[in-house]
Amino acid sequence: MRLVLVGPPGAGKGTQAEFIAANQSVPKISTGDIFRANVGQGTPLGLQAKKYMDAGQLVPDEVTIDMVRDRLAEPDAADGFLLDGFPRTVPQAEVLDQMLADLGTSLDVVLELVVDDDEVIRRLSGRRTCRGCGKIWHVEFDPTKAEGECDRCGGELFQRDDDKPDTVAERLRVYADQTAPLVNYYGGQGKLVGIDATGPVEDVTQRATDALERYGG
């Protein structure tokens, strides 16, 4: 099965991607993983990307697309894959469609994790990160025994800038502006299936599995 996972920040895409890829026996391919692999291996594309990253700039679409194209051409992706974090925009989706057509295949399904903005803000703004070991806690869902102190190492907990409510709201605005149109794009192709991404992780995973089974996965 060839599928794309979409959803707003805080929807749990990373967690669900791991479960779904394992369940479908396909590689999970995220742009973050691809970037790290290329930079770590010192590939020509990785060196290009590193120049932009070191300068604090966004890696241009063409570099990201070339990395994804190379990754999809690897043997382990021949019989299927799960893409997480790509495409992020409709132009990227159009390029992906052509890329797969060049490989003689196409996407089977696009799974959308549906969660409302208030829930996203609740999830992300409640996160606290340990300055010592880096573990992430949550004031509501995974609290520490002592407020502001890591249970694992005793380090001080802090709220990352990108987890602050105003920043989360801006991330949601960017998502609505750039990535949400993918829902209409893939919906028009008849490939979109949405699932409720609220509740326990196991419940969301079961909904995803049930939805994919209806698509032959």
Put the structure in a nutshell:
This protein has 217 residues and is α/β, with parallel strands linked by helices. The protein has helices spanning 13-24, 31-41, 44-54, 61-72, 90-102, 117-125, 165-179, 181-188, 201-214; strands at residues 2-6, 28-30, 81-84, 109-114, 127-130, 136-138, 157-158, 192-196.
Pick out its properties.
217 residues; alpha/beta; 5-stranded parallel beta sheet; 3-stranded antiparallel beta sheet; 9 helices; 48% helix; globular
Q: For this entry, what is the oligomeric state of its chains? A: single chain
The computed structural class is: alpha/beta
Gyration radius (Cα, Å) is 18 Å
Q: Work out the helicity level.
A: 40-55%
Major beta-sheet overview: 5 strands, parallel
Order of helices and strands: EHEHHHEHEHEEEHHEH
Strand content: 5-15%
How many individual β-strands? Answer: 8
**H/I helix tally:** 9
Rounded mean pLDDT is 92
Amino- and carboxy-terminal Cα gap: 6 Å
